[in-house]
Design goal:
Keywords: Signal
Distance between the termini: 111 Å
Helix content: 25-40%
Pfam families: Glyco_hydro_25
Structural class: alpha/beta
Protein name: GH25 family lysozyme M1 (1,4-beta-N-acetylmuramidase)
Oligomer: single chain
Family: Belongs to the glycosyl hydrolase 25 family.
Number of domains: 3
Number of strands: 10
Signal peptide: 1-27
CATH superfamily of the largest domain: Glycosidases
């Protein structure tokens, strides 16, 4: 009786091992990579997510923790206006102070547990330089802290415009000498990739890709990015009470979870990224313009910067030409006239005479054509007076 049970148990173990191998073989960097046990995971959260750090630390695949830092513009320095406006202003300052205190506390705890730390800024409409300063002043990043710019969409009425995002990135580089990671959804990332000749910085930032599908191989903008730095694969959008791609102990059931295309050791070595993709290190985002000696001695000098970018690639030039081809082509076209009179001879002289007269009867047109001067086809003061 023991022999059949023993064989059944061995068969079950073999079947389970085979299924695990099949699952691992199907998984790739673009298809359910979180199913590979060697792929590192990162949690990102905001101030309203509760975290049990003791429980979270039991998941050894969690390598990093990225927390929301600033949101748009900083609160006003002075509370002015009527009673309601002052109350609102004070409430914003209170929230700002409490959120920052929570942020710094989480940073200390996460690092004490051996986790890599990161911060992201939620980009809103408004002055991008002021937002970048708000972000850095809020996060107080260490050299090993990841920084990320969160662009939720490509609607400048709701989110920071992509042009302003470029300036945000420049300001971060001016202050700390490195670049943030770009967080973006699939649609916005594809738009940036398709217009990389316009967004020379955004298109070269390491990509933190947000898409809640099991496979992204046909959606990922491979023409610009060859891979992602992080892929946010699990969030409230696809994680519920009964089903979720991945659950992290000690966190809400719909916490945002991200996967890296590498193992833990490689991700730790790459963290906090901070460089540009496929751009020589000699090219900076901007350089300060020279200040005269007299102005420098006088003090109160505002430093201004000139943008510097790598020379356009062949692909950039093809994309730019393709986008502007219609306008370029139309500039060489003759006007298309669909209602010109039909005459045996209808050259430029007759065309000008026809445009100058408001009469449209055949006899009047014949008279206008007969009186047309071949040497005078340009507009004159008399012509403008007759119109």
């Amino acid at each position: 009786m023991k022999t059949p049970a023993h064989l059944l148990r061995r068969s079950a173990i073999a079947l389970a091992a085979m299924m695990a191998l099949i699952s691992a073989a199907k998984a790739s960097d673009f298809s359910e990579p979180w199913k590979n046990a060697d792929r590192a995971l990162v949690v990102d959260a905001y101030e309203y997510n509760s975290i049990d750090w003791g429980q979270l630390a039991t998941d050894k695949r969690i390598v990093g923790f990225i927390n929301k830092a600033s949101d748009g513009m900083p609160p006003p320095y002075f509370c002015l206006g009527d009673e309601t406006e002052v109350k609102l202003c004070k409430a914003l300052w209170k929230r700002h102070a409490v959120t920052r205190e929570l942020f710094q506390t989480r940073k200390v705890v996460a690092k004490a547990l051996g986790l890599k730390w990161g911060a992201y800024h939620l980009a809103r409409p408004g002055n991008p330089v002021e937002q970048a300063n708000n972000f850095l002043d809020f996060a107080e990043p260490s050299p090993d802290d990841l920084l990320a710019l969160d662009i939720e969409g490509n609607d400048p009425s709701q989110w920071m415009s992509l042009e302003d995002a470029e300036e945000f990135v420049r300001q971060v580089h001016r202050r700390i000498g490195r670049f943030p990671v770009l967080y973006s959804n699939g649609k916005t990332a594809q738009y940036i990739a398709d217009n990389s000749y316009r967004y020379r910085l955004l298109s070269r930032l390491p990509l933190w890709y947000a898409r809640y599908k099991s496979d992204i191989d046909v959606h990922f903008p491979m023409g610009n990015w060859q891979g992602y730095a992080l892929w946010q694969f699990s969030a409230q959008a696809n994680c519920g009470r009964l089903r979720c791609p991945y659950r992290v102990a000690g966190t809400p059931k719909d916490i945002d979870v991200n996967v890296a295309p590498t193992d833990a050791a490689t991700l730790r070595a790459q963290w906090p990224f901070g460089g540009l993709i496929d751009v020589p290190p000699d090219y900076l985002a901007s350089i300060p313009l020279p200040v005269s000696r007299a102005a420098g001695l006088a003090g109160n000098v505002t430093i201004t910067y000139a943008s510097v970018a790598a020379p356009p690639t062949f692909e950039d030039m093809v994309a730019a030409l393709g986008t502007r081809w219609t306008k370029f082509r139309d500039g060489f076209r003759m006007p298309v006239v669909k209602t010109v009179p039909r005459r045996p001879t209808f050259g430029i002289v007759q065309y000008v005479a026809w445009k100058r007269t408001e009469q449209r009867s055949p006899d009047q047109l014949d008279a206008a054509f007969a009186a047309a001067d071949p040497l005078s086809t340009a507009s004159t003061e008399i012509d403008r007076g007759l119109r």
